[in-house]
Amino acid sequence: MTPKPLILAQNLSVHYALRGSIIGPAPFVRAVDNVSLEIAPGSFFGLVGESGSGKTTLGRAMLRAAPISKGDVLFDDGEVAYSLKNLGKKELKEYRKRAQLIFQDPYAALSPRMTVRDIIAEPLEVMGLTKSRAETDERVREIAGKCRLNVEHLRRFPHAFSGGQRQRISIARALVSGPKFIVADESVAALDVSIQADVLNLLKAIQQEMGLTFLFISHDLSVVAHVCDHVAVMYLGRLVETAPTRTLFSTPRHPYTQALLSAIPSLDPDDRGKAQKLEGEIPSPTNPPPGCKFQTRCPMAIDRCRVEEPVLETAGPEHNVACHRWKELAN
Amino acid sequence: MSRLIDVENLTLQFDTDEGRITAVDDVSFSLEAGEVMGLVGESGSGKSVTAKSLMKLNPRNAIYGENTKITLHLEDGPVDVMSLQNDREMKIVRGGSISLIFQEPMASFAPAISIGDQMVEQLLIHTNFSKAQAKEVSIEMLDRVGISDPSTRFGQYAFELSGGMRQRAMIAMALSTKPKLLIADEPTTALDVTIQAQVIDLMKDLVSEFGMGIIFITHDLGVIAQTADKVAVMYLGRLVEQGTVRDVIRRPAHPYTRGLIAALPTLDDIDAPLTPIPGDIPSPLERPPGCVYNTRCQEVVGSRCSTQVPAFYQVQPDHAAACHIYDPEGGTE
Predict the structure, then answer these.
(1) Which pairs from B147-155 meet CB under 8 Å and 24+ separation?
(2) How far apart are the CA of B18 and the nearest CA of chain A, in angstroms?
């Protein structure tokens, strides 16, 4: 039997009100719309989609850093259980120790006026997790070591570091409070290829060593394929497909997932122009199309897709897909 | 094919508060008309400044090396780009024979002038069209790059277009003057994969239609494999490998190119471990002596790697790498 999920999103929606027009009801953006998702403890869960698909908002809602409009997110690490929609102020503080975020841009995420030691120690001091300076120092050194930063590094300021090193500092800062759940939002997107592999390997090693659960948000499917064990694909605020990584990449069922995979430029110069090309662009989330959200670009769309929204159906073990036609297209 | 541009011994330094920085160091390459060259490298490798040098488009503190020679071969005879002095003379390369597409199309369009007015303006500068003709040509180009309802788009502003549309409009604008050489600086990096695939397709169509030369700057080897005829790899201001796209990607000769390809996650084998290149790219203020890559190289052949700048060695016809391992004399320690 699968273990109890660490994170359980139930019909989660995040809606943002837009500045309203004078007449009529205020318009709103359905950034995340009716998403249900389970993340098992110890998994490296990938969340992919194009810009505007709502993947960052979903990640933030799981940290209670975005408002939950409908539905709920349940967190249960075996020690404590929270319903994120109904978190009190004190509980929210407690939750912050257990759930942390690693940002995309390592240049913007670190204060230029603080030493690396102070940057990593700040969460400990704010959360009151250590009793003395000596204890803080010890904890900082321990976590810095895990992220391959040495004592010499701790005395310096962020500007002295390269992109890869800065990202390791961000990781150390996220890990220092001893969290169980980490949201890594495009954490390697700003890094050069030669450095990116190093940070990915570090994240994997730390996850295994400390028994963490990751939500890894990325637009880069090849990166996700290499590090994640489970993947969810989002489009316009909806989940369109979720599956174990191997299944998703070998037998993608949703036309959108298939198009995404084939749009990745192949490294083979003789394999040109075979990609299945998607027409058009992702519609605005303020004015999503009726029926299936993907129907405006889907090469397989039929009349039913334009009126009726598909729900997630089981397509295999742990494999869910939201498409009216997946079964007939699978043959 | 006829020769389009020759770049010989391009060296470029910048005077900064922290000292003189070498951004490009003795780079030579050439391009034929109708050829697509991929210029690959990581951040700080000097690929963008190299491309901008072809139009002398670098800031005032840029110092070009004495031996730098850039020759653009036009129908009316060769143009020595380095000898062009003022803006008037420069018009022949800037926007005339050479067009540039930037990574971020939002930053490349003036926000308060409509797309159409910007397109017309540059046509009036570089061609003999009347205003009405320029408008007609612009709308035709917008249509050509796949922008629906081009006459409406013509009157719109950059913020009214989506990212993919903006990049298409940028391409339309760059091509409307019929340049001989198009420099595309990371034109698809800010785009989503599905849009990137559309833009790459569009660019391929336009090359075969207009027959211009393209220098395609990117850090993404997949994009290079899909678009380029030949590839030049840069690291810390130096060219380390040059060859046809098949040779460089299938049989990379320089240890850096090999490392770059090994570090790339691919979908062919998702269980393969990712192999990073150890260490970090050194700061341009602390360029290593000898081979610039020696601080991270896994195939160092001796002390000469850190003392002696390697020459370019031919590894196959049309494929060369700047690495001591290919020195036929070898082992001369």
Answers:
(1) B147/B172, B153/B115, B153/B116, B154/B114, B154/B115, B154/B116, B154/B119, B155/B114, B155/B115, B155/B116
(2) 14
Inter-chain residue contact A245 with B197, CB threshold 8 Å: no
Question: Do B222 and A265 make contact, defined as CB atoms within 8 angstroms?
Answer: yes
Half-sphere exposure of B280 (CA within 13 A, CB side): 16
Q: Where does the pLDDT of residue B333 fall: very low under 50, low under 70, confident under 90, or very high at 90 and above?
A: very low
- The string of pLDDT tens digits covering residues A59-103 is 999 999 999 999 999 999 989 999 999 999 999 999 999 999 998
Search chain B and give the residue with CA nearest A283: B162
pLDDT in tens, B13-49: 999 888 889 999 999 999 998 899 999 988 888 998 9
B265–A223: do the CB atoms touch at under 8 Å? yes
Cα torsion A288, A293, A294, A297: sign: negative
Check whether B267 has a pLDDT greater than 70: yes
Q: Does B204 touch chain A (CB under 8 A)?
A: yes
Residues of chain A with Cβ-Cβ distance to B258 below 8 Å are none
Contacts of B270 in chain A (CB under 8 A): 225-226, 245-246, 249
3-state DSSP call for residue B238? strand
pLDDT at B18: 83
Q: Which residue of A has its CA nearest to B161?
A: A281
Nearest to B42 among A193, A200, A220 (CB): A193
Look at residue B54 and give its three-state secondary structure.
coil
Are residues B70 and B26 in contact, defined by beta-carbon separation less than 8 angstroms? no
In this complex, is the C-beta atom of B175 within 8 Å of any C-beta atom belonging to chain A?
Answer: no
Mean pLDDT, chain A, as a whole number? 90
Helix (H, G, I), strand (E, B) or coil at B189: coil
> Nearest-CA residue of chain B relative to A162?
B280
Regarding an ipTM greater than 0.90, the answer is: no
* Distance between CA atoms of residues B29 and A57, nearest Å: 46
pLDDT tens profile A237-296:
999 999 999 999 999 999 999 999 988 888 888 887 666 678 888 888 888 899 999 999
